[in-house]
Structures are given as C-alpha cells and as structure tokens.
C-alpha cells in the first residue's frame, strides 16, 4: 500500500470514528498530501528519509506546534497557537513524518482516564464485553486511541507518572517512556518538569524503536536534556561485553517485584502477568523474585511532587500575554482581591485546580519540609530500590566503577502496567457520593515508580482468556537507566502474545 | 527574537488594588505651607512669606534633631539592607535576548522571558563574570555549588508567576563591607564600622509597568530577566546615616569593580531596608534575624531609590515604631512603602495578607558550579577596591585631601581617576628636571586642575565626562608651564577654557601664537601700576591703614591685574608691592 493511501485512510478514520481522540484533526486535504507523495517517491527509489518518512504521527496537544493550536485540553489555552515547534515535532518533520493532528488528553496531562478535558472525554476504541464505552487511560488517551483506531501510524505523548503506558495498556497499543533526559522537552508544556518525559505510542515495539531512534538526541534548548558526554558514558557502559551480551546470546534474568503483587490486582491481570513470565521462562530466561520495599510510598510521593511542580508551572497562565482571559477587571474588584482569580478560576478545570491547591499547600512555608522535602527523600529511596536489584549499575552514578554488573541481580523487571482493566466511562463521569476524586490515582501505582526513578519502561499488550472471552492486559517492562534498547527488546518478545 | 509578538500582544491589564493616593502625600508639605485657615488671604509679601517658611523649616529640623537625640538614648535602632543591582551583561539571565534598555518596548525578548508554554531556561554563563566580581569585591566566599529556586507571586510584571532567584543556596556568602568616617557614617560609629554581608544571590529582574489609566497598565518586558544581584547585609546597622552610607558604599563598590553600570539615580540599583527598634536596658527582644537575636519585631520598607530616601525612610519608620511602642501598641511584621518627599512610611501589606512565596528548587535549571580556575583569574583581574585607592590617594605619596580623593575615585565610574593618573604620569615626565619638592607638589596641583578647574567647566557646560574634552597631555603641559611660572594662573584658566572649547593646538604652540607667555614686569612697572590704582582710591587706602583691613589688599591686587597688561601681572608680586606702598 502506498504511503499516501495509508495516510488518507488514517485521515478518513479520524473523521469516520469519533472517539474524540483529536482536539485538532488533520485537514482532509492539504499540503501534507504532497509531502506524502514525495515520500512515496523516495521510498520507490529506495531512499526514504527515515523509517517514518511519509507516515502520519499524531501529537499530544500539550506539545507545541506552529501550524496547529496547542490547547493542553484547557479552556485557558482553547484558542492558543504556539509561535514555535517543539524539538520533537521538528525532528519528526525532518525525518519526513507528517503531524497527524493534535490529540486529546487530560487537561495539562493531569488525569488517568482522559476525561478531564475541556473538549470532552476520549473514548477507548475497544468497548467492554457488554458493549459499554470504557476509559482510554490517561493522560495520553487521545494519542493511544488514535493509534488503536488506525487514525495515524503512531503518536507522541507525554509520560509524567504513567501517562503513555496506562493508555497503551487500556487500548492494546505499545507505549514507551524512555529514560528521563533522552528526548528533548523543549516545546512540551510542563506539568512536572522533573518527571515529564516525551513518550511514544505505536502498534509495535519496532515502530516505537524507529521513532525513539529519531528523537534520542541532545538538545541544547532543554537544560534537562542529557549532555553528549553523558550519552557517551551510557553508550560505553551498554557496549561493555557483560552488558552487550544481554541483547544477543545470554539468557535474561527477569525480576518480579513481590511488592507489586497487591490485592487490587484483578484475576485477568494477574493471569497475564504469570503467563508472560512463563512464556519468557520457556524461552530460556530465568525469573527471580526481587524486593522494591519503598514501592508503597511511591504513589503518595508522586502526588506530592507532581502537584507541587504543577502549581508552580501553571502560575504563568494569567491571560496577560497569551491564552484566554476573563472579561472585565481581573480579581474580585476589592482592594486586596486576588489577581487573575477570574481568568484562572474560569480557565482551569476541576482536576487542575485540585492539583494546584494541593501543590500550593505542600510548597507553603509551614508544610514544605513535611511534604516536599520528605517526598524528595522518598524519591531517592525509590531510585535506590531499583539500583539495588538491577545487575547493571546506574551508568551516571560513578562511585562504584569496579564492575558494571553484579551477580544475582536482574536485567529487567516485569510487572503489570495497571492493576485492572479500564473503567466504564459512565462510571467515571458520574458523581456518586461514595467516589473520591482520588480513586483514579490508584491506577498509576505500577507506573509511578519508574517515573520517580527516571527509568525506561514500556507497556505491551497481551491477551489472556477471561470469563467473557479474551481479555486484554498491559505488561510493563522496566529497565535500568539508559537500558532503553533492552526494554524495547523485551517488550518485543511479549507484545501481542495471546496466552491460552 | 520573537517574530509573532506584535503590538496586539501587549495588552492592558486591570490591576487588583483600587488606586488611592497614599495618605503620606497629603501631609508631606505641611511645614512649608500653613493650613488654609491660617493663611492671610492676599498680599503677603513674597519675601516675608519665604522667610517665615524657612524659619518654620529650620525650627522643625531643630525639633526633629532634639527628638532624635532623646530617642537615641532610650531606643536602639537596628537596620539591615538589601540591594538589588542590575548586572552589566550582554544577555538576560536565562536567554540570549539583549539587555539593551534603549530599544522599543517589548523588542528584546526570548520565548522563555515571556514564559511561553513549552519554553525552557538556558543559563547564560557569561553573566557570572560581573556577578562574581561583585561578590569578590564584597569579600564574599564564593560557593562551589549553588542553585536556583522559584519565588512565587502573582503580579503583572512577573510573566511566569514566579521569580527565579537563589534562596536556599546562593552563590556567595559571608562577606563584609567596611564603612569609614569619610563614607558619612554616624559619629557614634567612630572611624570605622564593619557590616557583614549574609549573602549575594543571582536573580531575575521584572518587567516595567506604567500606569496608563487608573485601570490600565502598560507593560514593557524588555527588562524581564535582566540579571540582578541581591546583596543582603546582616542587621548590624544602628543609625539612619550609617544605613545610607552603607547603601552608597555598596553602590560604589559594585560600580568600581565593573559589575554594574548604573546606580540608583538611573534605576540600576534599588534598596530595601528592614527596621526594628528595642528599648535599651530592657530584656532582649524576642526576634531573631539572620542569626542575630534579641531584636524587636521588624518591618520592611521596599523599593527605595535614593540614598536620601534610605535615610529619611528609616528615620520616619523608627519614629513611627517608637511612637507605637510608647503608646502601648505592638509592631506588626509588615511591608511598608515610602514615597519621595513624604514624612511617614505607608503600609503595603500586613502580616495576615503576607505573601508565602512557596520557594521551590527550579526543576529545570541544573546546579551552578563555579570552578577554582575561574575564581582565581577573576581575583587576579579585580580592580583595586575604592578603599584601597582612597588610602593610596590620601597617603604620603599623593597627599590629597580626602574631600578631593573621594570624588576623584567616584566620579565617572573611575574614568576621572584614570584621567588624573594620565595627567600625573605625563606631568612627571615633563618635570624631571625639577627638584623633589616641586615634583611632589604636582600631584596635588594636578588633582586640583582635574577636579575643580576642568570639573567646573564640565559641570558649567553640562557635558558628559569624556577624556578627549581636554586631552591629558594638554592639561599636563598647561600645568607644567604654570609650575615654571611661564604663564599666570588666569592665563592657564583661559587656555584651559580655549582647549575645552575645541582648540586642539599643542599647548606650547597655542601660548606662543596667542602671545600668552609671561613677560615679567619690572619692579618699576609694578610700582607705577600700584600707584595709579592707589591714587584712584585714597579712602580705601586709609581704611586699610587705620583699621588694618588687610582683606582689602586683595581688591587692589584685582585692580592691578585688570588695569595692567593682560597675562603679565602676577598676583603675588602685585600684593608684595602694594604692601610696601600702603603699609610701610
């Protein structure tokens, strides 16, 4: 099939199936068609610019694009178009890819179900066995849905605490969060800078790897982008004989963290986890129980640090220089009234306000030590937990350079991406008294630890027999910092497996 | 740097507070103008009115001084100072946008300076050079690792909703500044007082806002993120004079080391002061600031933009606090403002409404690591400190009076001193044939010409200082001729003015061509000249003789110089002849 044909089919799907995956879809016709035709010509000559030359890649709407609006699914930016492209957008376009539109999300990336959007909730292209609409996961739910519904070739999302992996698990796609600092965040609207990473959602780990290889470059505009010398150190560690063999001959040592075996796991997820491990064992790899004792604090740590940074990052939205502004004098008109309270009060949704208030509280002078500082300490413990079980040492922590690998430790960790299947949209959207707005936070329990530690992690779909036919589950592979290629490879071994 | 930012982006903004004139304004002039009811309706002679007003002002000042003396005995004042100074840098703190202040509003901006979503800070390492120079000049310990924090508050001049500063880990700590009697400290501080500097930190400046209508502010973001240093002293100052001297000295130091180019008068430097009082001889106060305990509750006065404002605001705030305490009240920890020309500080923010800045380490900006190599090269190239220069100039070699040495150092950002040294160097080479005593006196003579004669011309014509107005070589030659008695003082002044007006002939040629070289008068010629002026003013001669009014001799010297041939009458000789003729 020609690239043009494929692209036109994707765009047709954007208009035919309304999962509300896009805030701004690609126009049906436009100059993109000429660009795809040129890519077709290059492909025929055997000279494509890259593996994604002429492919449509959708972009989460918290990533800046010069040609299309960037709303962050917020009313406060509902008509905002950025004056510049994010680095990842420039990189993809230079590789011949076409921006396939801007995908829906939880406002500013805050949510686990993509229902906190000024533009309405995203619907998962898959329904549950009763035919009910279910959550596409969040916050990159639009990105995952657009891939699952064949509305694009792949999608670029962001992952702060699981925002790419969770939607991938819920929609049956592959979602990859690279090591922190590998992909540029220039042009990515910050939610929580120290956790934010650009993530990739695709049909296969192979597609994801192709895109990752294009984006994995130093960017001097992003102060948190890993420097070239640091990249060389990682590369040198990975190419050392002990570590290089893992990708070729040697069987892998696979870790199973006992703390992840929680009572909230549904039976189908537990089954998918066990069968995945059994499958890998059959391939000759070995499975080992490991302990990550601080896991139980990871979720609360995340919900202290994320909102703290968010409350700071979102202070810039005041309607003065860009974005939407409330009518009339801003503030309540009283001498000691609060500046911008109208603009911000009207512009932000409930969940964003909740996290701003939460973050403002934990940063306040009286609470800072108890919450923010304490959470930073726990974050360090979570990182140390991972370092203690991975055979490969953290390549940027220099103190023990005697050897790069330890016996008895593991190469990757395998666990579920989410404790359960996606919830029904109508249950999520109803306001019943017995529900807390904090309930969805539990969905992030398995994804948050890798985010806190900055580790690469991938979610791949597997299916297992369930009570009402085959059930889908996301299996997560977590690796040591910088071990992104190994994580992608192990993800590839499991993706799409259907276990009986 | 930002193409899409057209004029439409600059929006008006309605601000939160209802504007009302500060109360202080209404009472500011009460001593100069009697209340309306007391005023005689019309026809008070202006001169009389002015006299009365001046008298009232004097009596007010005297009264104020008396009150101050009384309260000084009973109350101890404690003041700490915070200075914000714009660093002399090409770029902003976190972007490559220019810091130029002369461009059209909102033209020097990068995306990050306007807090555009998705933009990120990139620390500009070159701004460290002036910052470290200032910290070294203030005797600080430069920290090998420092960090940036966000200070949160909403205001229209702050685009990101926070200011990036160094709250938890500043780049310089534990410095000091020495204030001497010649710096204008209070007499009770003696010859010298040392004020410790707690820390120096890097931070961003804010935008400029200008009121356009009562509900509209115009915003110019060119100044946003201009690199600033904030210098924080310990609360160790106990008089308003010393506080003003401290601010003046801090400004002189950061200017002289080349860290800063504009002082308070051009808005390049602003001061905040914190003020507390406690009754002497009572139990120590309950408050502790920067490790100094036993103090009273302090208040902060923000944004003082002149040395006088620093002094006046502290006096007013001290008096206010004493008044509150003496009438049984309690001082609130609050932020206060000061309007130029007012007599009392004005409450801006109370404690209940006080801002919690929610300082948070900036998650995007890596730690700032300053290497020993950079430090040592900056230490080597640091210009001599003003105090060391002053010691040199008033010392045995130059022997200048302190009132000349200080302006030489402070004027024109050091350029005047450099010029003076040029003049002295050339003059020394011209006078190698002279004896040691004459040569030693050159230094003082040159200072006089540079500061007073040339300085007077510059001031009179309101010219900006420029070393080429009168080239150092020309002035040196002029002084040389004068020293050798080849021209008279008035001639030298005349020639200086000629050169000042643009005459570029070499001095010897100019003197030759204009026939200005001194041809000394003979004794007979002096006597004839003196007799002629004496003959015309016999009654004055009588006054000198009978009442010994020797001061009037000078008048006769003037007459001789005026009636004599231009440039030939030498005043000392004229006076000598006059004394002979009149007194003997």
TrEMBL record, chain A:
Keywords, sorted A to Z: ATP-binding, Ligase, Mitochondrion, Nucleotide-binding, Protein biosynthesis
Composition skew (Low complexity), residue ranges: 132-142
Residue ranges of the region described as Disordered: 116-142
PANTHER family, sorted: GLUTAMYL-TRNA(GLN) AMIDOTRANSFERASE SUBUNIT A, MITOCHONDRIAL (PTHR11895:SF7), TRANSAMIDASE (PTHR11895)
Entry's Gene Ontology cellular component terms: glutamyl-tRNA(Gln) amidotransferase complex; mitochondrion
Active site positions, chain numbering: 60, 139, 163
InterPro entries, per database record: Amidase, Amidase_CS, Amidase_dom, AS_sf, GatA
Name the UniProt record assigns to this protein: Glutamyl-tRNA(Gln) amidotransferase subunit A, mitochondrial
Protein's job: Allows the formation of correctly charged Gln-tRNA(Gln) through the transamidation of misacylated Glu-tRNA(Gln) in the mitochondria. The reaction takes place in the presence of glutamine and ATP through an activated gamma-phospho-Glu-tRNA(Gln).
PROSITE patterns: AMIDASES (PS00571)
Organism, as annotated: Penicillium bovifimosum
Locations listed in the record: Mitochondrion
Reactions it catalyzes: L-glutamyl-tRNA(Gln) + L-glutamine + ATP + H2O = L-glutaminyl-tRNA(Gln) + L-glutamate + ADP + phosphate + H(+)
UniProtKB/TrEMBL annotation, chain B:
Matches recorded under InterPro entries: Asn/Gln-tRNA_amidoTrfase_suB/E, Asn/Gln-tRNA_Trfase_suB/E_cat, Asn/Gln_amidotransferase, Asn/Gln_tRNA_amidoTrase-B-like, GatB, GatB_Yqey_C_2, Gln-tRNA_amidoTrfase_suB_CS, Gln_synth/guanido_kin_cat_dom
PROSITE patterns: GATB (PS01234)
Domain Asn/Gln amidotransferase: 418-582
Broad enzyme group: ligase
Intracellular or extracellular location(s): Mitochondrion
GO biological process, one term: mitochondrial translation
EC nos: 6.3.5.-
One MF annotation (Gene Ontology) recorded for this entry: ATP binding
Domain of life of the source: Eukaryota
Catalyses which reaction(s): L-glutamyl-tRNA(Gln) + L-glutamine + ATP + H2O = L-glutaminyl-tRNA(Gln) + L-glutamate + ADP + phosphate + H(+)
Gene3D superfamilies xrefs: 1.10.10.410
Database matches in Pfam families: GatB_N (PF02934), GatB_Yqey (PF02637)
Entry's Gene Ontology cellular component terms: glutamyl-tRNA(Gln) amidotransferase complex; mitochondrion
SUPFAM superfamilies, sorted: GatB/YqeY motif, Glutamine synthetase/guanido kinase
Subunit structure: Subunit of the heterotrimeric GatCAB amidotransferase (AdT) complex, composed of A, B and C subunits.
Name of this protein: Glutamyl-tRNA(Gln) amidotransferase subunit B, mitochondrial
Organism for this UniProt entry: Penicillium bovifimosum
